[in-house]
Design goal:
Elements (H helix, E strand, L loop, with lengths): L1 H40 L3 H4 L14 H8 L6 H33 L5 H10 L5 H14 L6 H5 L6 H11 L4 H9 L4 H9 L4 H16 L3 H6 L8 H11 L4 H22 L7 H8 L1
Helix pairs in contact: 1-14, 3-14, 4-8, 4-11, 8-11, 11-14, 13-14
């Protein structure tokens, strides 16, 4: 029996070691490109091409970032394009959270005929690739005069089937007793949703907000269709144009990539604490 326990202990330790080796390897694969991007942005282009690659810069090379901000034509259009992306991604993220939460709450907590059918139809839209509806959507946008406008970038993406699915699955676990108690106290449904459900849905809302923001921040294909003027372009379009015109300076390209990554990094660090936070539901139950 003792030998069997010893063998089991060694197997468990070996399995744990393999898991840690796999996780460390995965982290390295994920972090190496990011480390390269940040270090290369602080070097002149001639240093980036050295072999072996100098992972620690000799100093911070500010001209890369200055040239990235100025742009190929020296018009500082990067700032306007970054503002465009913030407006589009922020607006889509906000309305996606609100609309998905409302829809998910209704599908999770209200009994009505056809509820399952409605949910399945919403889920079915996730099976349709964007490329299949891109041209019809573009034609509708052109008919409505949405070309080269914020509305053309925002309106097609306010509804999000995945967001509805995420919020519904999360809110199904929300205790019905809390909602019933609030109704007995005379709270209206909008008040229950705003004061009880939303504050208790922090992890799901944070996850959905980050995913919606990232999707629009990185979006290239749709802005490429509906935007023509440089003033209305978003960050991905700026990066594409910048790389085409300054393809020989890797340091500047990395600096532009770093500046384009900052909003996503800040958003993730701000909301990441909600991913594992389950106090919202507990506090809601106590209230």
């Amino acid at each position: 029996m003792s030998a069997q326990k010893t063998r089991s202990w060694y197997v468990e330790k070996a399995f744990t070691l393999l898991i840690w080796m796999f996780l460390i390897g995965a982290c390295i694969l994920i972090l190496v490109p990011l480390v390269f991007m940040f270090t290369a942005s602080a070097m002149p282009a001639r240093h980036i091409l050295r072999l072996p690659y100098p992972w620690i810069p000799e100093g911070f090379y500010w001209p890369n970032f200055w040239s990235g901000l100025r742009g190929p034509e020296g018009t500082f259009i990067f700032i306007r394009n970054a503002l465009n992306s913030l407006i589009v991604a922020g607006t889509v993220s906000f309305f996606t959270v609100i609309l998905s939460s409302l829809t998910g709450y209704g599908l999770a907590k209200f009994q009505f005929r056809g509820r399952t059918l409605v949910f399945m139809l919403i889920m079915a839209t996730m099976m349709i690739p964007f490329e299949a509806i891109m041209i019809p959507l573009y034609m509708v946008a052109m008919r409505m005069g949405l070309q080269d406008t914020y509305a053309g970038l925002i309106l097609p993406f306010l509804a999000n089937a995945f967001g509805v699915f995420l919020m519904r699955q999360y809110l199904i676990t929300f205790p019905d007793e809390i909602l019933d108690a609030a109704r007995i106290d005379g709270a209206s449904e909008p008040r229950i949703f705003a004061r009880i459900v939303l504050p208790s849905s922090g992890p799901a809302i944070a996850t959905l907000a980050i995913l919606a923001f990232r999707s629009q921040w990185d979006s290239l294909l749709w802005p490429l269709l509906v935007i023509q003027s440089d003033e209305m372009k978003t960050i991905p379009l700026y990066i594409t144009k910048f790389m085409a015109e300054t393809h020989s300076d890797e340091g500047i390209m990395m600096a532009v990539a770093v500046m384009a990554s900052i909003p996503m990094i800040v958003l993730f660090l701000t909301l990441s604490k909600y991913f594992v936070n389950t106090e919202g539901l507990t506090s809601g139950a106590k209230g």
